[in-house]
Amino acid sequence: MPSTIAYDPSLSFASVISNTILDSLVAIANAQQPVEAARDKHNSLVAHKRSLEMTKTELKNLGVETGSIERELEQLNKLVLTSAAEYEKAKIIAEPQIARSRESIRTMQRQMGSPVDQRRTGIKTLPISADSMNMKVKYLPFDSVQQNSTSYASNIASFVSESIGTITGLSNATKLGATFSAQVAQKWDMQSIEGTLIFSMSCTHKNASLLAPLVLNPDKGIKIWNQIFPANRLDPTYLEDMKNAATEYSDEKHDKYYVATGTTFGSGFIGMVHVVKTPNSSRADALTSAADQLDALANASMSFNVLKGVTGLDEKFGIDMKRLFAEQNIESHVTAVTIGATAAANGVADMSSHPFEVKGDFGPFASNTMGVEGLMRELNDYLQRVSQITGGMPLTYYLKEVGKQSLAQWWWAKYYPGKYHELASAHDCG
Question: Cβ(17)–Cβ(259) under 8 Å?
Fold first, then answer.
């Protein structure tokens, strides 16, 4: 049996997971594997392309001939286009399969309770997982000839979904991308947008939540058992049957269900700077360069911190990031979304019970609420706090196995504690 399963929005902490539900979750994971493989391949090629383009620019500045790199880029562009098509095709194939499996989970879940004794069970936070951080930055210019507001918003949604999908999962990543797409499309006529600078930060947290001490209510557990396995019922009114179940029955090769008794968490921060078009010439090249510099700065900062035994970005990155924005001197308005964390005016606060919090300004005067400086302050605060926060967006669940023998033994221990010890001793000696 699996000791952990990936987060699914249809499940919750301390919920019951039957074998049938587990099979559906495995089916979802199997359907997502080709999508994740295609996404990783595409992202790898895109990263390689960006690296080559930066190398080409550096060589040109040095006056070095770049014909061989340009030929390599031509071939790489074809591979990027092919991988993008494969990725989209994989998503189209997977989505109906995932939707069917998720619907079957919801159907099976709605009549089921939880066997956890909430009065006697506690929740502990323990550092048993791992901290990790990933940052992506990209500038998406708007081409008024080849694009409209809908297609441009769709491009933004795709980038957001891809960059945050490893944390939230495919379903929530798609939902989050749609949130951004709707925000951009809805407000498009209020401003003439030249392009959008997007940066996404996704993190996993070392702090996990566990049910400890974990106490299960045998009466609730037996009721759930009889719902799931009507042909293999437990009947507490027949003591001989309960005795046989407690001493002779083995859980190893028979029916069982599972309880989600722990969860690991992650969080994310996504910001968009919508650059307002001005009478001056386009800033697309400058902003694309700034985005590449931010991406490189983030990777360098995280790599250096790993050598120091520290996860994430340091204070210098925040200073460099603010300097880059100040150099551009852009007119803009901004949007920020936090996942698994609550963004407040004075920084990231405690963890939110709602998965997404959207914040920003779409009017002509961004400084009235949160301009670029405010957005940078929010991100910097998130980076400072992320390693210490508890809770967030669930990533995986820890499972406890519940079998017929275990339920019968817990029932005897609750109602006939002395008799239970006699049964257990006889069983151990036999």
Answer: yes
Quick one: 312 and 345 in the same domain?
Answer: yes
Instruction: Based on the fold, state whether residues 199 and 313 are members of the same structural domain.
Output: yes
Q: What is the total count of domains within the chain?
A: 2
Summarize the confidence of residues 179-207 as an average pLDDT.
74
Domain co-membership, 94 together with 136: no
Contact present, 370 and 195 (Cβ < 8 Å): no
Q: For the chain, give the percent of residues with pLDDT over 70.
A: 69
Confidence check: pLDDT of 302 > 50: yes
Q: Classify residue 233: in a domain, yes or no.
A: no
Report if residue 269 sits inside a domain: yes
pLDDT for residue 202: 84
Query: Both 297 and 177 in a single domain?
Result: yes
Which region among 69-73, 240-244, 296-300 has the lowest average model confidence (pLDDT)?
A: 296-300
Domain that holds residue 171: 124-206+265-393
pTM of the complete model: 0.73
- 284 in the same domain as 188: yes
Clarify whether residues 105 and 160 are in a common domain.
Answer: no
The answer on pLDDT for 317 being more than 70 is no
If you average pLDDT over every residue of the chain, what do you get?
76
pLDDT the model gives residue 330: 63
